[in-house]
Amino acid sequence: MKLINLTPHPVTFVAEDGAVILELPGCPNPPRAQETRETHGEVNGIPVNKVVMGEVQGLPEPRPGVGYIVSRVVAEAARRPDLFIPDQTVRDEQGRIIGCRALAQV
User: Which of 20, 39, 62, 102 has a CA 20 to 30 Å removed from the CA of 88?
Assistant: First the structure.
């Protein structure tokens, strides 16, 4: 399966031994899910909104043999079998994410 990264960040897949398996460049115009907000009250004088995810914009149509890596928000809003999210993140000594070990679906 061909993987296409539609997140704004590079996605690097790292083996258990730290070797880079695959690196996919980020997408300059990633798909986004529309959001609507409704006032839902307040807590200690701070407004609380209810956010509802809507239609996804900028997501290519499904293609045979192609999987798209997207943000979790997009994957949850679109609910398509060809969408994946990075999973099992790998961090460096400073706690920065440097890669992932797997893909996941929501």
Answer: 62
